[in-house]
């Protein structure tokens, strides 16, 4: 079935550092890909999305490119801020499928 | 604001007692979901609904039932709560744009934290 794999473990980095969170997926068709963010004490909210190969999603300085050849959708930000501290989830949705499959999430902690 | 309200937001109960969590939406969306969030597991789908009285199981449905008697409310029931059901439960709806159901974009409630002693 469809699945999403995120890199293990929390990510701790200093303010203004470069952030990368890896996400790879397994799907039978042509899924849409998403990054969701969860701030402390809140529900998840959509950060960005891409619906076809080579699309780049971007929002709030974050970017991710849909790479069909490597089945990846890595999240990047060039200069993180303390306010970016949150849990980040990669997710996919197959066309015609009403469900969203989530990765396990990565806790990101940005230190001043 | 997607107009999603979860209740209760926090609940502590004892093993063996029934528990019902409510998700209420104000925007007439067709698709509604219940997820649970646990450390090391991310979000896992419990049940979802694609219309009034139309529901289906997710990947972790054992021990849970749902009901949707009207569009705006989606209830999650634990008939006999167990300690393994201690979790944070999130309701979500699938958004629409121009009358068309969006692919994948979900709007989440703020969660209901359930502790089963």
Oligomer: heterodimer
Query: What is the CA-CA span between the terminal residues of chain A?
Result: 41 Å
Order of helices and strands of chain B: EEEEEEEEEEE
Sum up the overall morphology of chain A in one term: globular
Tally of DSSP helical segments of chain A: 0
- What is the strand tally of chain B? 11
What is the β-strand count of chain A? 12
Report on the structure:
Chain A is built from no helices and 12 strands. Chain A is globular and about 45 Å long. In chain A, the strands form 3 sheets. In chain A, strands 2, 5, 6, 10, 11 and 12 form a 6-stranded mixed sheet that branches. Chain A has strands at residues 3-6, 11-14, 19-21, 23-26, 32-38, 44-50, 56-59, 62-65, 75-77, 86-93, 101-102, 106-111. With 112 residues, chain A is mostly beta strands. Chain A is 0% helix and 50% strand. In chain B, a hairpin with a 2-residue loop joins β9 and β10. The mean pLDDT of chain B is 91. In chain B, strands 2, 4, 5, 6, 9, 10 and 11 form a 7-stranded mixed sheet that branches. Chain B has a 4-stranded antiparallel sheet with strand order 1-3-8-7, with no helix packed on it. With 117 residues, chain B is mainly β.
Short description:
The complex is a heterodimer of chains A (112) and B (117). Chain A is mainly β and 112 residues long.
């Amino acid at each position: 079935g469809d699945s999403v794999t995120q890199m293990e473990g929390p990510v701790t980095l200093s303010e203004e550092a470069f952030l990368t969170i890896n996400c790879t997926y397994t799907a039978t068709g042509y899924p849409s890909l998403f990054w969701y963010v969860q701030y402390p004490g809140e529900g998840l909210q959509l950060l960005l999305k891409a619906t076809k190969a080579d699309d780049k999603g971007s929002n709030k300085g974050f970017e991710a490119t849909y790479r069909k050849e490597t089945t990846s959708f890595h999240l990047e930000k060039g200069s993180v801020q303390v306010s970016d501290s949150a849990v980040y989830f990669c997710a996919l949705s197959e066309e015609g499928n009403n469900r969203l499959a989530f990765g396990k999430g990565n806790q990101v902690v940005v230190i001043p | 604001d997607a107009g999603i309200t979860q209740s209760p937001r926090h609940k502590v109960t004892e093993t063996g007692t029934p528990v019902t969590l409510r998700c209420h939406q104000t925007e007439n969306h067709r698709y509604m979901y219940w997820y649970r969030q646990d450390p090391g597991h991310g979000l896992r789908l419990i049940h979802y609904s694609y219309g009034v009285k139309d529901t289906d199981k997710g990947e972790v449905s054992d021990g849970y039932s749902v009901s949707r008697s009207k569009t705006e409310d989606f209830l999650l029931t634990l008939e006999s709560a167990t300690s393994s059901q201690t979790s944070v439960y999130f309701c979500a709806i699938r958004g629409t744009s121009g009358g068309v159901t969006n692919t994948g974009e979900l709007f989440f409630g703020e969660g209901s934290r359930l502790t089963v002693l």
